[in-house]
């Protein structure tokens, strides 16, 4: 079966809408941006907007996902193994992404942003883990990918909240030995 190719005009129009939204988000809060603003900026009609996106929230989600993937440069991680360099680079990408959003549409949309970040991280970690571990226990790898994605996201929120005076890579480096080798608690029975 042959792969379906998307018309370049459709791709250009979709990119035009997304770029117009990004441009508007630099000038206005998300809550103040309307479909009319976007269609005016992109020089398209409403029907064209709704052909590409369900509504403005769908557009927000698609733009955030795309910007995050660009920040993460996920193609780099497809050929990587889970090591200190990869973890530091992912953490820096997440903190940079969050910083870039702080003056735009972050307020009031933390849950959407958090979900997008965690979903993208989960995919990246899962691909790395599958490549790195030859196991039939796909469920265990998925759980580990979820744990890593939530952990990295949570650490980025903590960095933003309390420790943004130090560089993100310095913040995350203290946890890397525990991430890469596991947490080995031993209890002494007396």
Descriptive overview:
- By secondary structure, this protein is an all-alpha fold.
- It has 10 helices and no strands.
- It has helices at residues 8-25, 35-42, 46-52, 56-72, 74-77, 84-101, 110-132, 138-163, 168-173, 176-181.
- α1 (8-25) packs across α2 (35-42), α4 packs antiparallel against α6 and α7 (110-132) crosses α8 (138-163).
- The longest helix is centred in the last third of the chain and has 26 residues, at 138-163.
- The radius of gyration is 20 Å and the shape is globular.
- Mean pLDDT is 82; it is low at 185-190.
Low-pLDDT segments, ≥5 res = 185-190
Class from helix and strand fractions: mainly alpha
Radius of gyration: 20 Å
Structural shape? globular
Number of strands: 0
| Overall mean pLDDT | 82
How far from one another are the termini? 66 Å
Biggest sheet architecture: none
Number of helices: 10
Q: Report the portion of residues in β strands.
A: under 5%
SSE ordering: HHHHHHHHHH
**What share of the residues lie within helices?**
over 70%
Oligomer: single chain
Element layout with pairings:
Blueprint: H1 8-25, H2 35-42, H3 46-52, H4 56-72, H5 74-77, H6 84-101, H7 110-132, H8 138-163, H9 168-173, H10 176-181
Helix pairs in contact: 1-2, 4-6, 4-7, 6-8, 7-8
């Amino acid at each position: 079966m042959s792969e379906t190719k998307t018309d370049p005009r459709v791709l250009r129009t979709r990119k035009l809408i997304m770029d117009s939204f990004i441009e508007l988000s630099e000038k206005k809060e998300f809550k103040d941006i309307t479909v009319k603003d976007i269609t005016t900026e992109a020089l398209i009609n409403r029907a064209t907007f709704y052909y590409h996106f369900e509504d403005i929230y769908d557009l927000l989600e698609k733009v955030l996902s795309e910007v995050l993937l660009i920040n993460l440069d996920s193609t780099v991680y497809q050929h990587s193994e889970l090591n200190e360099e990869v973890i530091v680079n992912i953490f820096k990408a997440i903190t940079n992404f969050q910083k870039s959003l702080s003056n735009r549409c972050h307020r009031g949309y933390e849950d959407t942003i958090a979900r997008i970040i965690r979903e993208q991280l989960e995919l990246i970690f899962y691909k790395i883990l599958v490549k790195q571990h030859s196991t039939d226990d796909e469920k265990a790898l998925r759980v580990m990918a979820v744990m890593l994605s939530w952990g990295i996201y949570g650490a980025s929120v903590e960095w933003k909240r309390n420790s943004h005076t130090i560089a993100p890579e310095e913040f995350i480096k203290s946890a890397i030995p525990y991430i890469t080798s596991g947490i080995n608690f031993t209890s002494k029975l007396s």
